[in-house]
Design a protein that fits this description.
Beta-Lactamase; about 170 residues; 5 helices
Length: about 170
Amino acid sequence: MFELKPSATSDKAAAYALLAEQAQALFAGERNAIANAANLAALLWHGLTDLNWAGFYLYDGVELVLGPFQGKIACVRIALGRGVCGTAASSRSTQIVEDVNQFPGHIACDVASNSEIVVPLVQTGQLIGVIDLDSPHTARFDRHDADGVETLARLWLQASDTAALRRAA
């Protein structure tokens, strides 16, 4: 059985290093992308502070569709280019938004969210989806979070059979 070890440090680099180590342990011997996404969403939810949503939106060939997550009920479908998730997906670049209320076209799935980070999941040039983290606190996310979540995204992509996701789309 896996035991979650919450980080007791305020050093973000150390906290994300611990999360990466835990993610690798969770992924060991498992290739199912949905199972790995569910466990990574739970790991992020329990391993990071000040979140009100942590999860995945997966690309179905047309739009982003809600995947495994932790938190409140979420929007189910997001068009590419729309909101923070759609922008990250279409630009294929990490989006750090200090105040979502200032982001043009922000999709308010949870009005309590005030900041957001979205990391695109791209493998061999193909969009797989995004990892999305929301916080009720303004300016919760920074470059340290981006580096950490991008590392976790790479680990998930390496560990998971994403071809099965593309076949299902």
